[in-house]
Design a protein that fits this description.
five-stranded antiparallel β-sheet, single chain
């Protein structure tokens, strides 16, 4: 497993929509392993492939010691509302409040292409939503309730 460079806000590739994963092969497995290593090396809870410069619909998440890989994730159900502060490895030290669903169900594929669904609440739901947004070129600062504070601190959208 290698640690890859995490792209930072301002890099235009973070704003592009990712393409579906079609090949469930050793190249994908290496990407997922590298993403896991990169996430842990940067003390993150989640990481999306676009954050390491790969425009494919793949994310890794570790919330409450539950590690999961989601390939081609699609949120199929949302319930409730929850507002908490979020951060992002691609944004730096800024933390800001974002409204997300309290509970979500996502359908995805595992690293071998097998489909599954996962339901998560609170932080797992938040993390999945955050990382799925990355796959669509959306950063948490776009949805941040504290956006003006971010801009005042010199942050770029």
């Amino acid at each position: 497993m290698a640690t890859r460079k995490v792209l930072l806000v301002g890099d235009e590739s973070l704003r592009k929509k990712s393409k579906p994963v079609k090949d469930f092969d050793e190249e994908l497995w290496q990407l997922l392993d590298d993403m896991k290593s990169t996430m842990y090396a940067n003390d993150g809870m989640g990481l999306a492939a676009p954050q390491v410069g790969i425009l494919r619909r793949a994310i890794v998440i570790d919330v409450n010691n539950m590690f999961v890989e989601l390939i081609n994730p699609e949120i199929i159900k949302q319930e409730g509302k929850d507002v908490e502060k979020e951060g992002c490895l691609s944004v730096g030290s800024f933390r800001g409040r974002v409204e997300r669903p309290y509970k979500i169900t996502v359908k995805a594929q595992d690293r071998f292409g097998y489909p599954f669904t996962l339901t998560g609440e609170k932080w797992l739901a938040r993390c999945i939503c955050h990382e799925v947004d990355h796959l669509d070129g959306v950063l948490f600062i776009d949805k941040c309730l504290d956006k003006q504070q971010y801009i005042k601190q010199g942050g770029r959208i």
